[in-house]
Amino acid sequence: MGLAARYLEEHGIPTVVFGCARDIVERCGVPRFVFSDFPLGNPTGRPYDLESQRVVVQLGLDLLASASVPGTTVVTPYEWNTDHSWKERIFTSTQPFLDAQATEKWLAAKEEYRQLRQKGEL
Amino acid sequence: MAVSHVRYIDKTRDYYRAEGYERAYEWAHFETIPFTPFAALRKPLAQCRVGLVSTGEVIRRDVDPPPDDPRRLVYALPTDLPAEWFQSRKAAYDRYATTLEDVDSFLPLTHLRRLADEGVIAGVTARFQVIFSEYSQRKTLTLDAPAILHQMREDGADVALLAAV
Known about the structure:
The complex is a heterodimer of chains A (122) and B (165). Chain A folds into 2 domains: 2-82, no CATH class; 91-122. By secondary structure, chain A is mostly helical. In chain A, 47% of the residues lie in helices and 11% in strands. Chain A is built from 5 helices and 3 strands; from the N terminus they run αβαβαβαα. With 165 residues, chain B is an alpha/beta fold. Chain B contains 3 helices and 7 strands. Chain B has helices at 8-18, 109-117, 137-154; strands at residues 49-54, 58-60, 75-78, 86-88, 123-124, 127-130, 159-163. In chain B, the strands form 2 sheets. In chain B, strands 1, 3, 5, 6 and 7 form a 5-stranded mixed beta sheet that branches. In chain B, strands 2-4 form a two-stranded antiparallel sheet. The longest helix of chain B is centred in the C-terminal third of the chain and has 18 residues, at 137-154. The chains are: A mainly alpha (122), B alpha/beta (165). At the A-B interface, helix 1, strand 1, helix 2, helix 3 and helix 4 of A face helix 1, helix 2, helix 3 and strand 7 of B.
């Protein structure tokens, strides 16, 4: 997603990236970034919370106009939970990131992609 | 918020190493960042059409989902449908901590339409784009990003919001 934002920006379209993985987005380097310290999945506000969604989207629009230098990050004012243990549990063996079916699908897709690439179809 | 954000780069490296993958994923990294100042558009936000991109593997609820495309190419869906008519079929999110059931939490269609009604923005482009989170940075740069730019230009997007699930 960061790469796509960079590409649009190189071609004259100002962008804002919304995301929950701050280290990944900032390592890539995007022009403007609205960071939600939420679990992966809800970059534009808490589910079923119209107010937080409204605020996050507005932060992005404000950032579009206000950012004067590339690589500007704005942090949303929301905390997912006072209990931060979800941050410890993500990507651990007790919580497999993908379930067995999704893992199988991912590996199959990866292999299919590799073959298409070899055949020059991608 | 004393607790710091999750270090996903470190966490995923350790996680996949423990799963038996020897080569760590090389996350994209650039020394410089491109920048188009908003002022370069020479018009206020209220006259800007907003494009929208999601990694949410979004599909419509009201029609049969398309079969999985192994090429995982960028595709587009109309923005003039209620958010509830869409759903995500993405598996890669924190399924233990949250949900993708509320589309507006990762694809702010309802909010952008409201902002258009309020005159804050000129409107939303007729389509939003879905891009897959890719293994291949080469594919993202040579196929996906150009496809998004092409559609954004066709749809008259002045600015773009990209929301990463």
